[in-house]
Write a sequence for this structure.
């Protein structure tokens, strides 16, 4: 099973992919998490993408594609993968199609989580992130058991640099200009399913399971 979780920043891609990863026992590949880990470890990739990410812009297609394709070759991806935040440009979607064809694979579904701009802003303003475990919380909608601490790793939760108010608007513009056109690409392929991402976390999850025929 290869599925893409698609949607604007704060739509709930990371939240849902964590639940799907647990349910299906396949990895969730978040390009954002890969870059945040590279920045924290100060690898050459991390150094290259730090300022781009902090500004809320997109990392260049070649670099993203290379990292994703390398990761997709790993043994744990052989039974399937959940793609979170990739592809994010039409050029990435085209490159992914070529890679899949060359590996005799196909995308099962592209699931778009549709969420109003106002809710996106509220979600990102309250988001709490655990850099090591990569778990995502929200101070009101999905709070940790102990305030400010990750349930899983016990580490201190932080606010992401790109959730700061001035970057949040810009990320939405980048989504509308550069990422939303990918929807048309998958619509034409009849792989796109759009669902109401405004519902609560559990209802959205149940809806995704239904779409995947897993309920
Ligand atoms: P990335 O990390 O992918 O960020 P994003 O796509 O902007 O999305 P977010 O992670 O902000 O939101 P999400 O949809 O995962 O929502 P979440 O589940 O956290 O990318 C970051 C950066 O990396 C990019 O800006 C770019 O620079 C670079 N990058 C990454 N991929 C790239 C690519 N392919 N090409 C080029 N550059 C790339 O939820 C948000 C909050 O809402 C949480 O607090 C959560 O608890 C809460 N929440 C979730 N669902 C619900 C719900 N149903 N109801 C109420 N609250 C909810
Ligand atoms: Mg995310």
């Amino acid at each position: 099973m290869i599925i893409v979780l698609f949607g604007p920043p704060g739509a709930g891609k990371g939240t849902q992919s964590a639940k799907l990863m647990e349910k299906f026992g396949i990895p969730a590949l978040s390009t954002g998490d890969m870059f945040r880990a590279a920045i924290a470890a100060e690898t050459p990739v991390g150094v290259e993408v730090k300022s781009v990410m902090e500004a809320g812009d997109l990392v260049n297609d070649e670099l993203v594609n290379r990292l994703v394709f390398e990761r997709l070759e790993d043994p744990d991806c052989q039974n399937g993968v959940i793609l979170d935040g990739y592809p994010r440009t039409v050029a990435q979607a085209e490159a992914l199609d070529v890679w899949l064809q060359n590996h005799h694979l196909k995308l099962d579904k592209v699931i778009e989580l549709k969420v109003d701009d106002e809710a996106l802003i509220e979600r990102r303003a309250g988001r709490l992130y655990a850099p090591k475990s990569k778990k995502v919380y929200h101070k009101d909608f999905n709070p940790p058991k102990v305030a400010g601490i990750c349930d899983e790793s016990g580490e201190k939760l932080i606010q992401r640099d790109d959730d700061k108010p001035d970057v949040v608007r810009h990320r939405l513009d980048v989504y509308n200009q550069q990422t939303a056109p990918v929807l048309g690409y998958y619509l034409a392929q009849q792989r796109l399913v759009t669902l109401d991402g405004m519902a609560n976390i559990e209802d959205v999850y149940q809806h995704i399971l239904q779409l995947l025929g897993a309920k």
